[in-house]
Write the structure tokens for this entry.
Amino acid sequence: MKHIRNFCIIAHIDHGKSTLADRLLDFTGAVTDREKKEQLLDSMDLERERGITIKSHAIQMEYTYQSQEYVLNLIDTPGHVDFSYEVSRSIAACEGALLVVDAAQSIQAQTISNLYLALENDLEIIPVLNKVDLPSANPEEVTDDIVDLLGCDTEEVIPASAKTGIGIEEILSAIIERIPPPEGNPDESLQALVFDSVYNPFRGVETYFRVINGEIKKGQKIKFVATDKDYFADEVGTLKLTQEIKQSVKAGDVGYLITGIKDAREVKVGDTITDAAKPTKNAIEGFEDVKPMVFAGIYPVDTDEFEELRSSMEKLQLNDASLVFAPESSAALGFGFRCGFLGMLHMEIIQERLEREFNMTVITTVPNVSYHAFTRKNPDTALIVNNPTDLPDPSSIDRVEEPYIKATIITKSDFVGNVMSLCIEKRGQITNQTYLTTERVELNFDMPLAEIVFDFYDRLKTVSKGYASFDYAPIGMRKSKLVRVDILLNAQPVDALSALIHADNAVTIGKKMCEKLKELIPRQQFDIPIQAAIGAKIISRETTKALRKDVTAKCYGGDISRKRKLLEKQKKGKKRMRQVGNVEVPQEAFMAVLKLND
Amino acid sequence: MGKKEAMVSALRKELELRKGEFQNETVETIYFGGGTPSVLSCEEINDIINSVYENYQVSENPEVTLEANPDDLSKNQIIQLFKSPINRLSIGIQSFFEEDLKLMNRAHNAQEAEQCIREATKHFDNISIDLIYGIPEMTNERWIQNIEKALSYDVPHISSYALTVEPKTALASFIQKGIIKPVDDEVAQEHFKILLDKMETAGFKCYEISNFGKPGYFSKNNTAYWQQKKYIGIGPSAHSYDGGRRSWNINNNPKYIKSIENNKLPVEIEVLSKTDKYNEYVMTGLRTIWGVSLTKVQEEFGKQYLKYLLQQADKYLEEQLLFIDDDKLIATKKGRFLADGIAADLFMINL
């Protein structure tokens, strides 16, 4: 066990985490030249395309250091706030972490919150100053930032370039020298932490774990503590680039397990695996059922495809246990599903995967958070409102509560004013302001989660010229003055476009929504009034005028084929639209509320 | 040989080169149009018509139209033309108002417009005039006066189009610079309604969205386009249709002439699929009083197409944008202005 090192990499998006991982694999010979692909660990197409890690991954390297053979387990963590729980479990599986900081951009909010997580778990931190070869790099200053943050010595910071290979050897020796080997008792009853699972259509769910105590053996009868279910370990092994089957995986090591489980929901990240006959008394702390934060309806564009959508969602859920959904129906869109997501990125990913992997054309409705409504009749019982249309009649409501978050924003001091105005506009209350250095400020706000859902990230980037980074953590429910803004197309309310909005902003947002929809809904055979309403009161109105262009132009000889082609193109465009009443509404219109400031 | 002579001789040669295409057909209409054919002299026009007679079988009383601009139609020219086989004039009046003509950058003025009609009606009985509506700054009153002026000359046919601003024209750049107000769809629609009412009262039939004629004076040539008849288009950029293929000549005069001189047709061809033909029939049919014949759809395209057509038409029938008369699917007065959008919906598309 003293030759095992388990570590993860903490970094902000684009600071070079995946590239550094690739370089480590190269250097230790874990990957042959033939297997080399950019961002090796990001195996989903979507991950490689977007350049971000969505799922955690793990890989084992062998490295000879001072004539000793070492096993290095790298646990790659997701790089987005939507997946922070997965990050926390990956961190819990390690003894050390590489803190990768971009030498040009310095420390970002996400890095800090993950760093705190790592420190809470007593991880040994190895600071790596990445991208030192870039012309815009500012190594001295950023090194100072790191030293300030960690309270370490300047010499401990390793200058590196994952791209060119500078510093890789130093990083490897630091991993071995500085990160402690795992502790744990191989003779105790099995206790292993599940930090990820991957769905394989042929082999079922592959569970990734870190053994804390005892060992997991092929054929052993095991138990998952949280779900209280027993399975046989059909296959165990370690995670090289391809899986390496083993008879057992012992305390301190990282591996995979196949039990024939076909449903990802049975394997919960953070759960403890133990021996079924001789269960451990100590489940690993920190297990949580992941709760969805953002909700939206997903509907098939073609109403006939509801069943097909259901089966696609079920298959998606097999490998993404954090996706939850329940059937719902909308007067405007027919039958579909109300889905819960970890965050906005997660929502986009699900939508994209449905389209790519299952060839479904879907409409996603305006996302919302989960509200608690209390009626006058029952002022102590919360009604959970995951869909704006479920909000009880305003006259019967005692109060509504909405989820709040603690937002951490790190920005250059030049942009503090802009960032503050944005957060205040978004109903944030500042709770703290700390100068990390003279240049960099950390701001804390209490803010409604709903405001993050509505175009917050993009605007934060804009007002800070890209220099602000952001992270958040839920802090519970708070009372709020919310109203439902309904949208009417051609005098028909379209429930899928309703949104719960703070009363003070409702009129402004209603107006913007109408304007945006006017832009997005193409001209049709008749005038379409677009209205926003609170209850029976119309607060805004726009009109999309009827289509009439070109019909009055000449139509002889050659005009005929030009016109036919033009109309054919128009008709093809309609295929991606959804008929609501007698109005054709394009997919983007349902998300219009998110892009009000574009 | 001057450029004009070279062009005329190329046109005559193309007529000859293509006679094989119309071996079993009778030419029923001859149309000089597109651009300004009135720049041709009477002799040149006669020569071209003679080439048609030399190479094609022509019906006894063909409709022979010349598109002409008012400034090309002098008193003398009109008399000369009347002596030629030309028996129909289509005069590009556009407007009887100076400000409209200026805005559209026309070569003639209001006075010439009136003068030439006065002269033309003395000789020709079958005259059509073009009028443009929806011009920026054109009030409803001025539009009504335009129509009334046209009607006062007792011409039997009027073609009328909404102004469309083509990109890269002087008008487009004026609009972009804010010198001229942009074209307003709303105004165009109102002008169209006024036009329909006025023409109907005056005894004209709107036999196609942009074409109004008294009984017996519908343009036979243009009607052929909407009824999928065969036609041969001679000259640069001209389109032809042989019942299955649409072809068009190169749109460059010197290249056209050079190619024809080398006995080569400078042509591009597009073969229309059954679906293309169906789509075109529906699109053009809905623009006319003849509508879309259900029998024809079944016979030419098959039961599947008919079924699809009726299924797609259903909601428009309900909304009274379409109606069925006998076995024809026809756009209602209200539906006619929306004919493009409706047609697109009735289109068959292979996705």
About this structure: Chain A touches chain B through 28 residues (CB under 8 Å). Residues 557-574 of chain A form the longest helix (18 residues). Chain A has a mean pLDDT of 85.
